[in-house]
Amino acid sequence: MPSILWKFLTYKGKRTPPGPLGPFRISEQALAKEPAQELQFTWLGHSSYLLELEGTRLLVDPVFSKRASPFPFMGPHRFFPSPVLPQELPPLTAVLLSHDHYDHLDRHLMKYLAKVAPRFICPLGVNKHLEKWGVPADKITILDWGQTIQLGTLTLTSTPARHFSGRWFQRDNTLWSSYVLQGKQRKVFIGGDSGYFPGFKTIGEQFGPFDLTILEIGASDPHWPDIHMGPANALKAHIDLGGKVMLPVHWGTFNLAFHDWDEPGETIIKLAAEKDVTLWLPTPGETGQLPTANKISYWWRNIKH
């Protein structure tokens, strides 16, 4: 902790954008009443996104608040507003949650979604938060690692991750998870948050190869390698999983670490090129279907001065 505090006081990098970003707006394609049949993804910033496949639409780790914090007046501030308002969201099949950290579980949004979302899927213990915020218990599906449920024609399996959990001063009394989503022809790995660990190779051997891996690349630091991967280890995880296309998330939205705010995006592009890995880096709010070659928007370079 002393070395982290010293770094916090002395780090001189560009932890926030030098000018305004956006505004970004969700595409009309993402707002369609009927979910897509083909694999479709809409990034909403950080680790929040809409994922659609075979008529199922998942809202994953949605955080629309201005701060990833228990306080409205302090804590990590968004670099740009959410590209969609809660009341604008299209009809959902379920809300899928990976763990209970503030940048993945938005209390205010959950209170709203409790009234309109038909189903919530979460790891062990996270249901207690949801119930406290007004989500009926009969809407909540709780998964331990290794457990599987059906979502229409899709199979969703909770798989391990190497992370931690907690809100306020409580720690590790709820579970953190990654997920495998299997359809008739497509497989997706939903990474949540994780440090690198041999479990990625095990998941790849059991469930892979994957058409798409959604992996976190931001908020990493040498002081906490066990809980966030950073670009190099995320790329290694993608390869272990047998991924075909890698979609990096968990970056470019909140100031959560001691690296330049755009460093994860720039670095993953360089490293992926060296390994001949196909990257998909959409603009916030952009909707797309699985690409066959690199699809990189470079949205973070469009700073307004």
How would you describe this structure to a colleague?
This protein has 305 residues and is α/β, with parallel strands linked by helices. The chain contains 6 helices and 15 strands. It has helices at 2-10, 107-116, 126-132, 199-207, 230-241, 263-275; strands at residues 40-43, 49-53, 56-60, 94-96, 120-123, 140-143, 148-151, 154-159, 178-182, 187-190, 210-216, 243-249, 278-281, 287-289, 295-296. The chain has an 8-stranded mixed sheet, covered by helices on one side. Strand 4, helix 2 and strand 5 form a beta-alpha-beta unit. The radius of gyration is 18 Å and the shape is globular.
Overall residue-averaged pLDDT value: 95
Radius of gyration (Å): 18 Å
How would a textbook summarize the main sheet? 8 strands, mixed
Order of strands in the sheet with the most strands?
7-8-9-10-11-12-13-15
> How many individual helices?
6
Distance between the termini: 36 Å
Order of helices and strands: HEEEEHEHEEEEEHEHEHEEE
Quote the beta fraction: 15-25%
Outline: globular
Structural class: alpha/beta
Oligomeric status: single chain
Number of strands: 15
Keywords, separated by commas or semicolons:
8-stranded mixed beta sheet, 20% helix, alpha/beta, 15 strands, 305 residues
What is the structure about, briefly put?
The chain contains six helices and 15 strands. With 305 residues, it is α/β, with parallel strands linked by helices.
Per-chain topology:
Elements: H1 2-10, E1 40-43, E2 49-53, E3 56-60, E4 94-96, H2 107-116, E5 120-123, H3 126-132, E6 140-143, E7 148-151, E8 154-159, E9 178-182, E10 187-190, H4 199-207, E11 210-216, H5 230-241, E12 243-249, H6 263-275, E13 278-281, E14 287-289, E15 295-296
Parallel strand pairs: 3-4, 4-5, 5-6, 10-11, 11-12, 12-13, 13-15
Antiparallel strand pairs: 1-2, 1-14, 2-3, 7-8, 8-9, 9-10
Helix pairs in contact: 4-5, 5-6
